[in-house]
Amino acid sequence: MATEKLTEYERRRLETIKRNEEMLVSLKIHTRLSELSAAFKRQRAEKSYKVSPEKKPKSEEPVVIRRSLRTRGLPPDAPGLGDEIIELRAKPSKPNSPPKPSPHVLGPFRMRDAYRGSGSDEALIKTISRRSQVNSSDESVNGQENDYKDQISSGLHDGSDWSYSNSTVRVLEDNLLGCSTGCESIRVKGSVDLGSLSLEPENIARVVPGRIMAVRIFPSTEMTIIAAGNKFGDVGFWDVESRNEDRDGIYLYHPHTAPVSGILVQPFSLSKIYTSSYDGLVRLMDVEKEVFDLIYSSNDAIFSLSQQPNDANSIYFSEGNGVVKMCDVRVGNTSASWNLHENRINSVDFNSANASIMATSSTEGTAGVWDLRKMHVDKPKALKMVCHRRSVQSAYFSPSGNCLATTSFDNNVALLSGANFEDISMIRHDNQTGRWISSFRAVWGWNDSYIYVGNMKRGVDVLCTTQKRIIFTLQSQHASAIPCRFDAHPHKIGMLAGATSGGQIYIWTAPS
């Protein structure tokens, strides 16, 4: 039935195909094709590839290049080439250059070699060195030192906010900051009128290129210098008071090869500035010696840097996953190491009232309070642990040491208070900065009343610790970027420095 439905053309086509197949079978074409295919496969398997001969070294003989009169700029009737030929001798092979030294073993190098700024840095070196020197021959200052310490001790013990404006006290305070032994760094305390804080155009400067990771104000009343470290390993200094028509007061250095994670200005000697980096190095910028010295090196990244308020010889830093180490800067060796968290530690801070109490924050979502006097066990136990739902970026003690503020990506700023930090309050705040902006870190001002933290609208939110909410926002038409990292001047009430991801520094100030 199927054949009857075919057209005449289709029947003839099928007959032709059948006839061709019978012819192929009779000629054994399929068999011959199978044999040829098998033989070709065997030949490919047995084929040996030739090894290309070694390239001959370039001849050391001179290569003679003949140049025409036209290309040499001579008229056609000029004499021939004669003996005038150009010889291009083969370039001698360059000796193998020695491998570059690893940045983890770099020793001291001069500040001049790390300087990347325009002009000279002599003015910065002179300013810092002059303020760092201690006037030990001033008998009147030395005679008042004990009285000043007694006043400070009484202020600390009674828990009240205090500040001094007497010029004699300010001079004494600056000398105390320069002491190398036997005295502590004193931080001025007091309240500030939030409405009076302002951002003026002259207090804005681009200090480093790119995103700022760390910012620090020099603890001095006689000069205003701000240090900032960026994600490229640069450390910039802004001498605010030296800015004029001839000089912008900006000095840029490149001591690291990875993001700068911490800056520490030695309060006992302002000429010593410690920096830590993701490259695993801790360096000391000694301005008086004009060198960058290597204090510590590691194969793991270093994420934070801190120092006890009464110890000029030791620094503390977090390394790798959850490890805090103590290093003696005099010998460059770590004398203690503690594994406190499961993941990286983003901040390390010490209590001003009790230098043995330390706070840490971790990416694992926790912040802990630790007693260094009880850290001899393999797995130290925290005095207090606060848990967030996401990464904790910072944990800082208040000026009195009675409170602790933590900042987390779970959009909360936690406030710990009480005798043993047993009271925990969560203050709601949007901490989502994205990948291109440094994470927010809430810092304390000049008393235990206010906490300052950036917002995504280019302002600074002020959190009240008693009302547990945002009560004020510092805003300015001159702010063109989002301030992320902050530092409050330890000796000038109302001076707050904010750093942006564009390398800018904003300085909010109160009327003098």
TrEMBL record:
Keywords: Repeat, WD repeat. Residues 43-64 have a biased composition (Basic and acidic residues). Belongs to the WD repeat DDB2/WDR76 family. Residues 41-113 are annotated as: Disordered. One of its GO terms (cellular component) is nucleus. SUPFAM superfamilies: WD40 repeat-like. The lineage of its organism: Eukaryota, Viridiplantae, Streptophyta, Embryophyta, Tracheophyta. PANTHER family: WD REPEAT-CONTAINING PROTEIN 76. WD repeats lie at residues 338-373. The keyword Repeat applies. GO terms for biological process: regulation of DNA damage checkpoint. GO terms for molecular function: DNA binding. Specifically binds 5-hydroxymethylcytosine (5hmC), suggesting that it acts as a specific reader of 5hmC. This is WD repeat-containing protein 76.
